[in-house]
Amino acid sequence: MLSRQYPCLQYLIYVYGKSYIILCCRCIQEKLDELHRLWELLLRKIQEKGQRLQQALQLVMFMRECDEVMFWISDKVSARSG
Questions:
Q1: Which residues contact 10 (CB under 8 A, 6 or more apart)?
Q2: Residues 40/25, Cβ–Cβ less than 8 Å
Q3: Helices (H), the chain
Q4: 23 and 7 in contact (C-beta within 8 Å)?
Q5: N- to C-terminal Cα distance for the chain?
Q6: Distance between CA atoms of 75 and 67, rounded to whole angstroms?
C-alpha cells in the first residue's frame, strides 16, 4: 500500500531493507518543503489580491465622487438656465 503512494519507498525497501525510514523521512521533508512553498505563495497571492481590492475600492469611491460633482454641476447649470 505505501509503495503505491511512495514509489521511492518501495525501491529502498527492496534494495536496502530497513533503511526505508530514512527515505520516508526524506519524502516527508520534501512534502513539507513543498507545502511551505505553496503556503508562502498563497500568502503572497492573498496580499496581492487585497491590494487590488483596495485599489478597486478607491476607484469606485472616486467615480462616485465624480458622479456627485457632475450631478451638482448639472443641477447648477439647470438652475441658471431655468
A1: 2, 3
A2: no
A3: 2-5, 7-16, 20-81
A4: no
A5: 87
A6: 12
For the chain, domain boundaries: 2-81
If you search the block for the grid coordinates 454641476, which residue do you land on? 73
Q: What is the mean pLDDT of each run of 10 residues along the chain (82 residues)?
A: 54 53 69 93 98 98 97 91 74
pLDDT of res. 43: 96
Round to whole Å and give the CA distance between 26 and 16. Answer: 15
Helical axes 20-81 vs 7-16, angle rounded to 10°: 170
Under 8 Å between Cβ of 20 and 8 = no
